[in-house]
Amino acid sequence: MNHDVPPRGGLQKAVIMTAALTKRFLTRCIAVVSTFATMVALIVWFTADPVSAEDASGSVGLSVVSALILGLVEGLTEYLPISSTGHLLVTEELLDLGGTPEADLALDTYAICIQAGAIAAVLVLYRSRVGQMADGIRGRDEEGRQLVIAILTAFVPTVIIALALQSVVRDALFGPGPIAAAWIIGGLAILAVPRLLRDRLKSGELSDLTIVHAAWIGVAQAIALWPGVSRSLVTIAAALAVGLSLRAAVEFSFLLGLITLGAATAYEALSNGSNLVDTFGLMTPAIGLMMAFLSAVVAVRWMVTWLEERSFAVFGWYRIAAGAGLIGLMAAGSV
Q: What Rg, from alpha-carbon coordinates, does the chain have?
């Protein structure tokens, strides 16, 4: 008898133990990277120049500290169901950034273009699925082709609604009050419908997503034009509502974000990118973008791991606390 070959039961146990150890190792790595990124931001915060640096002409620029903080906020909040736009707008207020028309426009542009870091994170983490979609476009993978069609179908209604309501939304909802309201309402919604957001019994996969279902997800995504709502939250909830499993719903939300966020980033960069570079330079925004990439990798990995065993409730409570905190800041005149 060959004693060098473990019995089938022992081999299975070894595989399970290896998988568990690997998962534990990755979780610890994520925690270390997250802690390191936070420590870097705090160190720079206390040692670097003031956040609203002025050049010789007196125009307000963007310091490395501000870029790192905005990048950290963008990366951590883009794919979590807590709204990156709301957090970025509030962070800009707290840091007292801007001050001139050019700087304000550059900040608005940067808040959108910094999404490129978060987009890159999903491209890296879901590179196998993205490769399958690329093969689908080339006619080599039917499932990939169907997924591309579903994503494009979801993207179209969002664009139509966004073009129709963009100016109205910006004038009426881009402020601390509407953001606080959206945070609290979204938090209450998460806590009020736990069965929808925790149901792991649904077995729908991405290949089961129909054109009609994808279109409805796209309509839901347009709700996130309201800062504070969260594109991630509404698309995951909509995908669950049409029958996808939690894992498939989260993945579709991330993949839909590639084209949605990518289109917004490209449009803003082409429209106002030159003003961004003229006002803030090239290197400082790039540093923030890199921070957004690193922190988004951490956030996406953590969220996927968290939802494997736990519910969305933590995000609901966070949103309510954030909304209450923002109301407190407004009452104190800080924002």
A: 21
Q: Say if residue 24 is in the same domain as residue 113.
A: no
Cα–Cα dist 203/209, whole Å:
11
Residues 38 and 67 in one domain: no
DSSP code string of 1-58: --TTSPPHHHHHHHHHHHHHHHHHHHHHHHHHHHHHHHHHHHHHHHHS--SS-B-TT-
Q: Check whether residue 41 and residue 55 sit in a common domain.
A: no
103 and 156 fall within a common domain: yes
SS3 106: helix
* Separation of alpha carbons 165 and 187, rounded Å: 24
208 and 318 share a domain? Answer: yes
Cα 301 to the chain's mean position, in Å? 12
Nearest to 199 by CA among 235, 234, 230, 240: 240
Number of structural domains (the chain) is 2
Q: Could you count the other beta carbons within 10 Å of the beta carbon of residue 42?
A: 12
CA–CA dist 46, 330 (Å, integer) = 25
Exposed, middle or buried, 270 (CB in 10 Å: 0-12/13-18/19+)? exposed
Say if residue 26 is in the same domain as residue 103: no
pTM flag (> 0.70): yes
- Number of other CB atoms surrounding residue 22 within 10 Å: 10
Asked if residue 55 and residue 25 are part of one domain, the reply reads no
Q: What residue has token string 């606080």?
A: 180
List, for residues 138-186, the tens digit of each pLDDT value.
Answer: 999 999 999 999 999 999 999 999 999 989 999 999 999 999 999 999 9
Quote the domain boundaries for residue 305.
Answer: 50-331
Rounded Cα distance, 219 and 153, in Å? 10
Residues 183 and 86 sit within 8 Å (Cβ to Cβ): yes
Q: Are residues 15 and 56 in the same domain?
A: no
Helix (H, G, I), strand (E, B) or coil at 210: coil
pLDDT at residue number 335: 84
